[in-house]
Amino acid sequence: MSQPPSKSILILGAYGFIGNQIAKHLVLDGHNVNGFGRNIEYGQAILPDIEWMKGDLADYCSAAKWLPLLENIDIVVNASGILQSGPADDINVTQSDAIIALIEACETANIKQVIQISACGASTGSTLDFMSSKAAADERLLASSIDAAILRPGLVIGRNSYGGTEFIRMIAATPGIAPKLSGFGTVQTIALSEVVEAVQVAIDAPDGFSGSFDLVERKSRALDQIIAMHRKWLGFGPTRFHIPVGNAVMRLGALASDAIGWLGWRSPMRSNALNALINGVAGDAAQTARILGRHAMPLERTLAGFHSGKQDRIHARLMLLLPIFMLMLIFLWLGSGILGFAMANEAAALLDNASTGAGAAKLMVYGGATIDIMLGLGLMIRKTARLALAGTIIVTIAYLVGGSILTPQLWLDPLAPLIKALAAMGLSISCLIALDKR
Fold it and tell me: Both ends of the chain: CA-CA distance in Å?
């Protein structure tokens, strides 16, 4: 059987959780793939075999902006999306305005096909802006003259984790404790590999698979059941205690997550994600069977398809602890700086005894306290957190070297301030690794 001719395909969100796998499989199928994103350095690192176009969707809200990017493109796949608005993103601009402008540009450029990765439950009448903004783009695409396939996956389960699946794995990693959830809707899942398969089917037969398709398994499950299945998949032992957790408690956590979201932290537990789980994730499994030619795999089979290992258990527990680790470091560095100013005379006296001179000693204390506070504030903001973590490591090394020269007796101090600094540096290194992109 002859191989279908290769096509030039533009993928929005090509380095994302779903887009990444779509891009990899289309390259293997022999297509010429172009990725669009604002961080193409990261894209080039994880997907070096595709061409990259740099851009921010917020700057592409007119058809004229898109047209130069569509030259020699046959198919557009939109796998972009954000869970919730933040300081760098507006969900309606990203998921609606920019995509509607793209659709208009595709009509002008005579693009053959557009494949939109939407979401189960997307509706213009939804109270969730995530769902309503997706639906606005879906409706405009269906009303266009383009061959369109709108794929609406349920909760997507992949080898890696992001968003909702990362939240599930974090909860599943809680040692000895499992939540007993109430007030949540049931959820239908879909394997990431089957989302990719649906994209491939739509590309190979654009005329036969135009329209909107839910992508879900047939069975609907309670959220705590899905968490328990992931716990078993990860290889953690059975839970000893079940703690009742209602959506009121979860809403408090979501409000806290929303608050730190304005500092750039994209927690998987923000209000949009929580509300989606409360409403439930439900779709029509018959639509999935139509595009795949079979029913979707049940969650048991999806999880059995990729074996978990040590790295998965470490990742799940590290991500569970990461917020605590970051708070510890913020408290450490802000506290150190504040105490440095509050007790400058006592700290300067310690250094003065090391024969540095009173004036120089006080200057060193104030300078060190200022740096500590700057690092603590930097750790609070996601955009600067990695740089601040690197700074804490460098400054700790400088403190250890300076302390060894000026106050070597502190290595033998019963409270071990210099030895404890080594542990703090190790915590910074761990957080720096955990903050790596998906």
Answer: 37
What angle (nearest 5°) sits at the alpha carbon of residue 96, between those of residues 267 and 67? 120
> Per residue in 16-52, pLDDT tens?
999 999 999 999 999 999 999 988 899 999 999 999 9
d(CA 343, CA 345): 6
Distance CA 326, CA 422 (A): 16
The lowest-confidence range among 151-155, 237-241, 320-324, 394-398 is 237-241
Amino acid at 277: L
Rounded distance between C-alpha atoms, residue 365 and residue 348, angstroms: 6
**316-336 confidence digits (pLDDT tens):** 999 889 999 999 999 999 999
Q: What is the Cα–Cα distance from 236 to 227, expressed in whole angstroms?
A: 12
310: enclosing H helix or E strand: helix 310-342
Q: What's the token pair of residue 236?
A: 């953690």
Per-residue b or e along 280-310, where b marks 16 or more CB atoms closer than 10 Å to that residue's CB: bbbbbbebbebbbeeebbebeebbeebebee
User: By C-alpha distance, which of 361, 357, 359 is closest to 369?
Assistant: 361
Token pair 């090391």 is at which residue? 354
Phi, psi torsion values for 36, nearest 5 degrees = -120, 130
Give me the residues paired with residue 77 across strands. 11, 115
Q: How far is C-alpha 31 from the geometric centre of its chain's CA atoms?
A: 27
